[in-house]
Amino acid sequence: MRTRVVGAAIVRGGRVLAARRTRPAEAAGRWELPGGKVEPGETAEHALVRELDEELGVDVEVVRWLAGVVPVGERHELAAALVRIAGDAEEPEPRDDTHDRLRWLGPDELDEVDWLEPDRPFLAEIAAELRSAGPSLRAVFFDEDDAVLVARRLRHDGYDAAVERERLAGEDDDEDHPWAVLTDAPAVAVELLVDEHDGWLDLEDGAEHPGPAAGSPLDLPTQPRRIKRP
C-alpha cells in the first residue's frame, strides 16, 4: 500500500506558488507544489495544513482536491489540492531547509520553471483554474506597508488579495516604485481602503470592469488620484 503525499496549489491574485527544493540531491534546484507526507492517523487535509505551516509558516484553507493521484516511486502517491491563504496570515517564506526560493506564477508562466515530474500532471488543471478567475481589481499605493495592510484586510474579509510591485511610467530604477494590491473584492469595498491608505483604484476611463488583468503593464500617474463619486 502506497503512502499518501500531499501537495498544495496555493492560489492568490491569479497566480500559484511554486517552491524550489534543496534536497534530496536528485530534486535540488527543481520546483514543486509544497507539501509533504500524511502521517498515520492524520487526514490528508490536516497533513497539508500542517506541512505548509512547518515549511512556509503560512495558514491555509483547502478549497478542493485536484483530479487524480500520481505515483511517486514505488512507495508513495501524490494528491494535490487547491488552497488559499487564510485570513490575514503572514506571507509564505521558507522556514526550513526543504526549499530555498518561492515564485508566484501566472497561467502562462508555469513552464518557466523545471517542475518535478509528479507535479506536472496537475499543471493543466491549475492553469485552467487561474484563467477562470478573470481580471482582478488593482489598488495602487506608494507605501508598501499600506499595500500589505490592505491585502491582509481583504483576505481577512474573505477575498483573494495579492501584493505586487508596480513601476511609474518613465521612472529610473533607483526611484521608489509603488505597490499594487490585486483582488477579487468589489470596487466599493476596495475604495474605502484606498481612501484610508492614500492610494487609488486603477480603472480604465469608461470601462465597465476594473482595469487590466494581473501582470499587465500599466502607465501609472505620478501622483495619487481619486475615483470621482457621483
From TrEMBL:
EC primary class: hydrolase
Similarity comment: Belongs to the Nudix hydrolase family.
Keywords recorded for this protein, A-Z: DNA damage, DNA repair, DNA replication, Hydrolase, Magnesium, Metal-binding, Mutator protein
Protein name: 8-oxo-dGTP diphosphatase
Gene Ontology molecular-function annotations: 8-oxo-7,8-dihydrodeoxyguanosine triphosphate pyrophosphatase activity; 8-oxo-7,8-dihydroguanosine triphosphate pyrophosphatase activity; 8-oxo-dGDP phosphatase activity; 8-oxo-GDP phosphatase activity; metal ion binding
Cofactor: Mg(2+)
PROSITE patterns: NUDIX (PS51462), NUDIX_BOX (PS00893)
Any one biological process term the GO annotation gives: DNA replication
EC number: 3.6.1.55
Catalytic reaction list: 8-oxo-dGTP + H2O = 8-oxo-dGMP + diphosphate + H(+)
Cited SUPFAM superfamilies: Nudix (SSF55811)
Location of the Nudix hydrolase domain: 1-127
Domain of life, per lineage: Bacteria
InterPro entries according to UniProt: MutT-like, Nudix_hydrolase, NUDIX_hydrolase-like_dom_sf, NUDIX_hydrolase_CS, NUDIX_hydrolase_dom
